[in-house]
C-alpha cells in the first residue's frame, strides 16, 4: 500500500514539523490576542490581596557553575507558582537576593 492511500487521522499535521516556526506562530498569536495579559486580568487580586501569591526566587547559580542539580531545583521551584495559578490565584514571580543580601 502506498503512502498516498493511507488515511491520516490529522491530514493537516506535517510528518516533519518545523517546531521553531510553529512556536513563532503561536507566540505571534498570543502577542496579537494579548493572551498572557488576559490570563492575568482574569485572576483578580481580591480585597487586600487575599487571592495573590508572591513567589520569591533566588539567583539560579549562587553556588558555582550550572549543573544537573540546578535543573532539578528549577523544575521544583516552577511547580509551586504553576500550582497556585491552577488554583485560580494571581501569581507574581519575583527574584530575591543573592547570598550576600544584595539585590539581584
TrEMBL record:
| InterPro entries reported for this sequence | aa-tRNA-synth_Ia, Ile-tRNA-ligase_type2, Rossmann-like_a/b/a_fold
Keyword annotations for this protein, in alphabetical order, are: Aminoacyl-tRNA synthetase, ATP-binding, Ligase, Nucleotide-binding, Protein biosynthesis
Q: Does the keyword Nucleus apply?
A: no
Q: Which Pfam families match?
A: tRNA-synt_1 (PF00133)
Sequence ranges assigned to domain Aminoacyl-tRNA synthetase class Ia in this UniProt record: 26-104
Mind telling me which Gene3D superfamilies this protein's record contains?
HUPs
Q: From the UniProt record, which GO molecular function terms apply?
A: ATP binding; isoleucine-tRNA ligase activity
The biological processes this protein is annotated with in GO are: isoleucyl-tRNA aminoacylation
User: PANTHER family given for it?
Assistant: ISOLEUCINE--TRNA LIGASE, CYTOPLASMIC, SOLEUCYL-TRNA SYNTHETASE
Q: Could you tell me what this protein is called? A: Aminoacyl-tRNA synthetase class Ia domain-containing protein
Instruction: List the source organism.
Output: marine sediment metagenome
Amino acid at each position: 500500500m502506498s503512502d498516498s492511500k493511507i488515511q491520516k487521522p490529522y491530514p493537516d499535521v506535517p510528518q516533519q514539523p518545523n517546531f521553531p516556526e510553529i512556536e513563532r506562530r503561536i507566540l505571534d498569536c498570543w502577542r496579537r490576542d494579548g493572551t498572557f495579559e488576559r490570563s492575568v486580568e482574569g485572576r483578580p487580586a481580591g480585597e487586600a490581596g487575599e487571592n495573590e501569591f508572591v513567589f520569591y526566587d533566588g539567583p539560579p547559580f549562587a553556588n558555582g557553575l550550572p549543573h544537573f542539580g540546578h535543573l532539578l531545583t528549577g523544575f521544583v521551584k516552577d511547580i509551586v507558582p504553576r500550582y497556585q495559578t491552577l488554583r485560580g490565584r494571581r501569581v507574581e514571580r519575583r527574584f530575591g537576593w543573592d547570598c550576600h543580601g544584595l539585590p539581584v
